Model the fold of this input.
Amino acid sequence: MGSGLTGLSAAVRLAEGGRSVVVLDRNEIASGASSINGGMVSPDIKAGVRAVYEKHGPEIGRAMWDASVRSVELIIDHAKSYALGAKIINGGMTGLGTRPGDLKYFETQVGWYREQFGVDWEVVGPDRIGELVGGSDSFNSGFYEPEGIGVQPAGLVFGLAEAVAHAGARLVSNCPATSTTLNGSGFIVATPKGDLKAGQVIVATNGYTTTEPIPALARKMVSIGSYIIVTEPLAEDEAKTIFPTNSMSYTRGRLLNYMRRTPDNRILIGGRRNLHPGLDLEESAQELRGQMIGFWPSLADKEITHVWGGRLGVPFDLVPHMGQEDGVWYAMGYAGHGVGLSALLGHELAGMLLGEDPPSVFTKVPHKGRWYYRNRPWFLTPASMLYRTLDRVGR
Ligand SMILES: Cc1cc2nc3c(=O)[nH]c(=O)nc-3n(C[C@H](O)[C@H](O)[C@H](O)COP(=O)(O)OP(=O)(O)OC[C@H]3O[C@@H](n4cnc5c(N)ncnc54)[C@H](O)[C@@H]3O)c2cc1C
Done:
């Protein structure tokens, strides 16, 4: 259940592999994060595989890195095979520094990734940052990952949904799964539209995970809001001044901003005022507009034409997880770095169920909740305040 990139990527492989597949969604098909995200895709995971190396050892760390590289390739494959309308932009990915210690931090981090994986990433200081992101005095440093790409998210996920239907699967909208019960060697999945019998069940609900159908999952996942605005289209020269190489970009920090140029030369900027999902869109738009003008004062007279928001699924360790609860498989926990990884985890989980793939590395790190969390995230307000302070002092 769940018709985002995780669920649909699993469904297309299972249906093409000859399985009888039904995809249920609580809302409209593909109306979760997968159709409304920033479309920025690059290797690595939110926690950084360096943290996985240090906590779970080099074998798991390296395997997770390799998987994250495959996730970028899979998005390109999915776009080519199923979603020709989802334009891929080969502009790379730029991490941007705004605080005094950021250049040093980038040099240390990039040095580690170069040594471990031989990446071809470049660190730039104040003299060259304008080559990557221009028209701003806010950025003092950055690092550039050439393998980063941009994709048009709605085109990708709706193309995938069409391919799932083409492969013979059924997609059912406005049909939440409310419980699953073991029934012999399979399951009964309860929904308001009636019960379904299934041999295997996959939960792919990420930031929209609730206590239904698996209460234990809701205790391991925190939903956090992410919001986006876009400007009216700019003249091509003006948009190119800001993003000369068409790179996807984000600032270093916990309450970070992510930004890019869209194919029709709008400036897109995303982020959040605080961590709560369901913030007021007008207020979020005002906040993001203020941040955008802080970076690029020349955009002050541009109209904001769209604002929207959605939910990120955040596990406590910021590592994506695949596993089983009550016999049911699940894949989730991308923490805002999920366009490539959601597609990959769905694809790998389907490969495991078909008996074609070995266990994914994402099954190998224990997925733990916290004793103080029972699906009521009371800590979002204090955490937002703490993160804002840490971001300000550059920690
Ligand atoms: C505003 C925003 C910007 C983002 N930008 C980026 C970005 O630039 N790069 C990046 O890598 N990541 C980004 N992300 C994250 C990325 O979009 C997600 O990690 C990814 O799309 C998750 O896909 P998914 O299929 O697991 O979940 P989703 O696409 O969120 O789908 C989950 C689905 O589960 C359904 N559901 C929930 N409960 C049930 C139930 N009981 N029964 C049936 N269905 C149910 C929901 O209705 C929903 O449709 C962004 C996210 C947001 C919100």
Remarks:
- The mean pLDDT is 96.
- The CA atoms of residues 13 and 350 lie 6 Å apart.
- The chain has ten helices and 19 strands.
